[in-house]
Amino acid sequence: VTDLTGRVDLTGRITGTPSAPNVIGAVAVRGLSLNGITFDPVLNGDLRLVPSQGFSVNVSGSRDRIALALNPNYKPISLNVKRGDATLVGIARGNIFAVDLKQFPLDGLTIPGVQLARLGALGGQLSGNLNIDTDRLQVVDGSLAVANPRIGAFQGERIQTQFVNNGGVFRFAETSLQRGNSRYTLAGNLDLRASP
Question: pLDDT per residue over 180-190, tens digit each?
């Protein structure tokens, strides 16, 4: 579930048929927000939808940029997001979509369906790598680190982990939390399978 808000203005041409329209034009995205993360007030660029070739959008503002390309089956080919100093770059390698995150701010992040208010505000900067299986639409494995993590009143210097998803059971290894002169290390599993 994703919380996506904003307005799109398109100036262009629509050709083809109702079941396979071709859309090519200039686009302006206003007030874009994704799960509480806001982008420049206006992102301008181009959009191209040709069902036999796929879909692409490339928009930018004064500091932010989003470029996305999908194949004819609407699976990702590439993604490049720049929000201030933060970057998210993804590229398809077969059925795996490899994502590299750098300095992505967690301040203001919301996760639909998760009551974060009980924990307090999130903060920190997320970096890492994820491999996503585009056939099964799930994360396969990855490594993540959060610099200056904050959950409510709790503040640390760094959290880092490596994990593998084995059928909905995430196995975390080499997970550590640095807070002051203390370092906490743990390993464990998180079972996200639906209960019978």
Answer: 999 999 899 98
